[in-house]
Amino acid sequence: MEKEEAERLIDKAKVCLRSGRRDKALQLLYEAQKLYPSVRARALIDAITRNGCAPGDGHNMRDFPSGKKNSASEEPLPQKGGDSKSYTEEQLQGVQRIKKCKDYYEILGVSKDASDEDLKKAYRKLALKFHPDKNCAPGATDAFKAIGNAYGVLSNPEKRRRYDQFGDEHQMENTTHSAPHHNFYQEFEADITPEELFNVFFGGRFPTGNIHVYTNQGAAYTHFYNPRRRRMNERREEGVQDHGSQNTFTAFLQLLPVLVLVFISVITQLMSTNPPYSLFYKPSLGLVVARETEALGVPYYVEKGFEKEYKGDALQELEKSIETDYIDYLQTSCWKEKQQKSDLANLGRLYRDERLKQKADSMKLDNCEKLHRLAGKRRGG
Fold first, then answer.
1. For 325, which of 19, 135, 305, 374 is 20 to 30 Å away at the CA?
2. Of 18, 10, 22, 14, which Cα lies nearest the Cα of 219?
3. Is the pLDDT assigned to residue 305 strictly greater than 70?
């Protein structure tokens, strides 16, 4: 029941992406992930937060103007079979180029040391050029999928590392054509579909006008050129320069309370004493003497002079706190182990990978077992 509801939320999020409502899509995906964690929802969340979503301008995807007339090499060619859709010779050559590519880097037209910015710029350019709603040449859909898959893999650091190590020409042949050997290159597929990736970047619409792509701290934005707005910005910048020194002083005054708080925090940390115990061996804090609580036998570490300071009731109260902390630690660690095992099993089912399924089945939940034994001690006591 929870899985079906999560799938429904993911489908609603995809609809929101196509209409450009990125924040609403993220909200729905987080709800789906909380209800029933899945690779599909996680991949969409990562793609949205990593790449951002360019604002749509309200135009339909088919209203994307070329901005210039077709040259002789761009004369529309009729589709075979009497289809009314047409394409240019340049579009057909572009599709054929993609089909001949031997690896993902060649598809995007970037070098193997390309940065994330280079990948984003290349994907934006090619995705707009080969999207099936704009390019009707034979094979354009497969080329569009290959472009999306190439970016989806190379923009993921772990997938890119594995691809650089194991990827080969045979895997690319499956990417640029239909996929009869789909299972052969599953490891080098993107976690979301090319259409979903396109919606993440463009909000489900083609941008119109002259487009300038720029980035700020890893988030991508799109600026639409407007001469009037440019003149207004230039006048505004002149005004800012005239009052530059005044603004600097004002900014310093605004930051002053924050600097005072940071200074007080540093002083407080320097004056604070070390904790009397740790659940782990910490020689840097002098917590090197191993002990166990009397009630549940929970291991912990203290300083060498610990026994002189903690005796009787004081020791009992401290050991109660230690046992509570240890139980909280085990509960958190147990939850992480179960989550990891569940994610691994979901990946195995998603990619039909028996190796991942076996690894998930054989994964031990050590902290869960410790928690179970500790609960038994409590009941026995």
1. 305
2. 22
3. yes
Query: Helix, strand, or coil here: 234?
Result: helix
d(CA 194, CA 153): 11
What separation in angstroms does the CA of 227 have from each of 57, 129, 234? 17, 26, 11
Q: Is the dihedral of CA 328, 329, 330, 335 positive or negative?
A: positive
Amino acid symbol at 212: H
Helices 169-176 and 140-154: crossing angle in degrees, nearest 10, is: 130
DSSP string, 99-166: HH--SHHHHHT--TT--HHHHHHHHHHHHHHH-TTT--STTHHHHHHHHHHHHHHHTSHHHHHHHHHH
- C-alpha span between 93 and 86 (Å, rounded): 14
pLDDT recorded at residue 2: 81
Query: Greater confidence, 216 or 109?
Result: 109
Residue 355 is given by DSSP the state H
Tell which residue, 161, 135, 11, has the closest CA to residue 61.
135
Which amino acid, 139? G
Report pLDDT digits (tens) over 210-249. 333 333 333 343 334 444 555 565 566 655 555 556 677 7
Per-residue pLDDT of 250-277, as tens digits, reads 888 888 888 888 988 888 766 656 678 9
